[in-house]
Give the backbone structure.
Amino acid sequence: MRTLLLIAQSEYLDRIRRRSFLLATGGVALILILVGVFGLWASGSRVSGAVGYVDRAGLLKPDALAQAAEGLEFRSYDDEAAALADLEAGRIQALYFIAADYLLSGRMTLLYWDKKPSNRIQAAFTEALRASLLADAPPSVRRRLLDGFHVVMRASEGEREASEEDILNFILPFVVGGFFTFVVMMASGYLLQAVTTEKENRMVEVLFTSVSAFQFIGGKALGLIAVAFTQLGVWLAILAALVFVFLRFTDFLAGVRPSWDFFALLLLYFIPTYALLSAIMIILGSVMADLQQSQQIAGMVNLLFVLPFFFTVLLFTDPNSPILVALTLFPTTAFITVAMRWGVTDIPAWQLVAAWFSVSGAALLGIYLAARVFRAGMLHYGRNVSFARLLKAGR
Amino acid sequence: MQTPTVVLKNIRKWFGSLQAVAGVSFEVHPGEIFGLLGPNGAGKTTTIRIMLDIFRPDEGEVRVFGGPMTEAKKGRVGYLPEERGLYRDQKLETVLVYLARLKGLSADEARASVHAWLERLDLFEHRHKKIQDLSRGMQQKAQLIATLAHDPDLIVVDEPFSGLDPVNTRLVKRIIEEQRQAGKTIIMSTHQMHQVEAMCNRIVLINHGRVVLYGDVEEIKRRHSAHAIEIEGRGDFHDLPGVLETRRQDGVWHLSLAAETDPQTVWRALAGRDDVKIERFELAEPSLEDIFVATVQQMEA
């Protein structure tokens, strides 16, 4: 175990100190930040600044405003001139005028300088005004009117339903599944590089007199998945910070509820899928003469794993079609298909179990073959291993 | 006699239809430098790989330190392969410390040992350089450090002098000799016969996967002393019956005889010729190179 961890540690440190790693991690992080900042700007949010109002109709009730304005500051003005002066001086970011005949005309004016107040501010003010208007109505009527419509879309066969607010929960598994697939591919791509580099550096002979093939491969795989998670961790931390900012200052993500059973399921599939792809990459790295050749073949192998993305339209029109069921049960496509279908349908339990056994079985077989081919192929410096030799090694 | 460090018994290995090793047996003892010799493609490297558990033999038995090779025993082995390689884009010290730690040393022990070896081999100032920025000779010395830093009991070196200048060749020879004196077991594979002759106590010569010579170097030379002749004189001494190889060096003709050829037969053949004049005809102690060439050529014939 000590040796395995030592190899993992060495692989990890070597990889994260590389300029390519820093550039890739930092580059994506920068893009995420830029996209987030742009999103905030586009949603018209202001991260600070009170909002003033002049209620000429005398409708707005302070307790209704306080309840709706959670975390926001609304400042009441009796004097219009003073309110306008504060707006001009930048002491408030926007100013509402509720017309004296509001009950008849519904007229309300919003004044601001360059930036429109965020959706959240506008929603809070509108909600406070509605709540004030309904203050004397019976509670059940008031709640119904304030909550508005709640449309539920349900498929005719009675499967998973989705509501308007639920649209992000509908899409999220799709996105998260894609993200995890990306990590699996990234880590196994690193592994392919590591194995090929080892072969190109002609280090294997020395290493095999120090460690077993299992320690060698296991250590590399462990170190490289840690690299992938480090990269993912950095990006997720930035994403989490952005989500926090969005939640604080916009209502964009307010309806999202994390699905913990989905995350548990992802983890369950993630491990054998990573093992399977890693085994394939080890075989490729052992068999091919150099990195360039290996990567060409690896590109085709990766296609086998992202194949379900080509059926995205089918996913939304018929998530239980035989093609998607077949992709669920096929080892290389099980992970991403399950992730994609999770948000749009109830996947039958038997399919989930069968798919997990399919990918796990393939992973075990892959690891067994990889260990044998690795021993046979890694000493073929600078040349490919013949198909006949590959078959012999596999037997 | 001490328990042999390495015992190979009737090792056989096939790659497809090709038999790379065909029944090789030998023993190597602590405190000796053992020469593993043979022409290119003879099966030497395969034999070494089988000995070190990189390959598994199809038949036969390998015993290292009294039993089969285990993960724990790997820490007692130092191997300098013919196919040299280190992580080219990593720093010298980092790579050497890592490799020493893989052999079971703690980080501090590994660093201390690597520093000592770097100083001894004049590489200490280059320890922060990347491997790819070192000269070929420096890389060769770095590889030797990787072989010795963990103080192994069994040292297997394949062509240890390739890429070294005469000064460093001498240094490496001295280091190998020191290791032998310290009681380590050293197996050396090389084509440089004069080095084998100067350093090895015993040898095994492999050809076509079979052992064709095995034993004490002096004993082998004595055994072959009747099979080499030195001649001084005028004329061409090529194409004599029963002579495997004829070469001229510093005006002296060296003839390697086939095992069944008597020197008298050569003398009689020369006496009957008018085109040569003999000034000196002498039985010679053959060099290991002569024995190597004669043995291999005889097999090929």
Q: What stands out?
A: Chain B touches chain A at residues 16, 49, 52-54, 71, 74-75, 77, 79, 81, 83-88, 90, 98-99, 101-103, 146 (CB under 8 Å).
